[in-house]
## 1
Amino acid sequence: MSTRIPIGIVMNGVTGRMGYRQHLVRSILAIRDGGGVPLSDGTVLWPEPVLVGRNEAKLRDLAARHGLTEFTTDLGAALARDDVQIYFDAQVTSEREKAIGLAVAAGRHIYTEKPTATTLHGAVELARAADAAGVKHGVVQDKLFLPGLRKLQRLVDGGFFGRILSVRGEFGYWVFEGDWQAAQRPSWNYRTADGGGIVVDMFPHWHYVLEQLFAPVRAVTAHVTTHIPRRWDERGAAYEATADDSAYGIFELDGGVVAQINSSWAVRVYRDELVEFQVDGTEGSAVAGLRACRVQHRATTPKPVWNPDLPVTDAFRAQWQEVPDNDEYDNGFKAQWEIFLRHVAEDAPYTWDLWSGARGVQLAELGLQSAREGRRVEVPELGR
Ligand SMILES: NC(=O)c1ccc[n+]([C@@H]2O[C@H](COP(=O)([O-])OP(=O)(O)OC[C@H]3O[C@@H](n4cnc5c(N)ncnc54)[C@H](O)[C@@H]3O)[C@@H](O)[C@H]2O)c1
């Protein structure tokens, strides 16, 4: 058996949806179930989580359920442990900045959910502080690791599209109001004061997807609204939904690519997946979801003629071709964790850092400004 190198990770917010399911169970515990992260020198990195939260009983229960022993409600004490190298944050967004600040001050490497802070100023300060402290840092950018987007990336890298013209993204589903059926997302997402809103939630995702797959975003025009103004919380109490639940955004990218992405928690799904991107280029087009990706090459593009007097005879969807997997796709959160852990342990290359996270927060902030002022807003380079 290969030598196991333990790496201590303070995991804060593990009682939450993302912290528990995606990061603890499907990433860190799944990595352990799979035998750890193999390093290039033949040893194996073995993550040792220290669970942190506000409720000791919940932490104890959670730890026991998964055969873990280390948990505490004292973040400072967890960060001070000499067997801990990484701080991970999946708390509600509004609590993140403070906690990451403490972890940086304690000299721990940082891995965090997005958005990295509630303001651009805060996000930039965190990135600067982490650089100044010489710690490594990473931000969850899970969508890049989804099979559908990896296939899209493969098409871009292979030059399938020719000159890319436009990207059309459609994201969303109906989030129940909470009165006659319980809401399927936490209520803080619908209150601005608690760090909620679809723009701060989703624009950071769109930012890294656009920047990584296509080109940097240079301008944003957004219309943002709250379609459902009253919702019911986890206890069944009515509350005013102060945060935006829908955003209609146009993003101008380098090279003239226009990306238009609708994000909504007030839309019913008539699509194959909860998010889909259509990319049109001079040589071909693709439609990618979370898992699937379909293409149409210019040579197989049909020539529809507009005639509303005749019934439709073309089966348009049937004219597209499925992009094969040609690879095995692991859980995206786990895949990114493994890359980050190797980055910490043996300096393996890593791209998605707190600066990238800050650019995502910037796009959200400028999107909200565009909506408020009813105008197009340019995206300046972030000063380090
Ligand atoms: N990468 C993604 O696709 C993705 C998806 C959803 C959410 N997120 C991000 O993950 C983070 C957590 O979201 P979630 O949906 O898991 O939320 P959640 O409400 O399910 O979990 C929040 C966690 O924060 C903790 N917490 C700490 N201080 C708190 C406070 N003052 N009030 C309430 N909770 C507090 C809770 O105990 C819980 O563990 C958010 O920053 C969100 O933006 C990312």
## 2
Amino acid sequence: MRRSLIVSLVTVALMSMGLTAASAHVEVQLRGYSNKAGDESQIVLRAEHGCMYNNAMYATESLQVVVPNAAGRPKPSYFPGFTATVVDSKSKDSKGVPVSYTVTWKAKNASFAIDGSNFFEVGLLTTWSSAPQKIYMPATQTCTVTKTPSSGMGAMTMNAKDVGKKLYLKWIVTTGATPKDTADTEYGPAPEITTVK
Ligand SMILES: [Cu+2]
């Protein structure tokens, strides 16, 4: 009796999660900071959930964001239990400036991975280019299948050989043409922000 109640509660939770997953992914929030071209500013990136695999949700162990130089060389926020790195792109623009910077927040070990049923936020200090424009920041979340999913019925359906498998949430779409999800990868819109005059 009690067990069937728990199973139906989990089912309801998964259904409501499915509705959220279609619209909300990783988004940029300004929180009142400037989006005026040329300004120094800051943004918040909010990730709303972990990775789904076989009806279970798994914890996020890294978030990687590609920031174009129109946002300046970003400085990432500290996140407890994670390291944050910034790597310049090899390709440079006509002035010798890297065209983008890859920012990665990575859990120091699996125990710091962020429960997939939680949302989390990281920040970046930015310097907006003097030319107003729409700036995309393609983002990838990485998770790992474990014996202890964050939520869902994975523990009941999980195949032991899947433990350790990497899962990806690729918030990289900038054209409206979303690739079809695969067993280990979900695709969605890239975080974006528009700077103004
Ligand atoms: Cu989502």
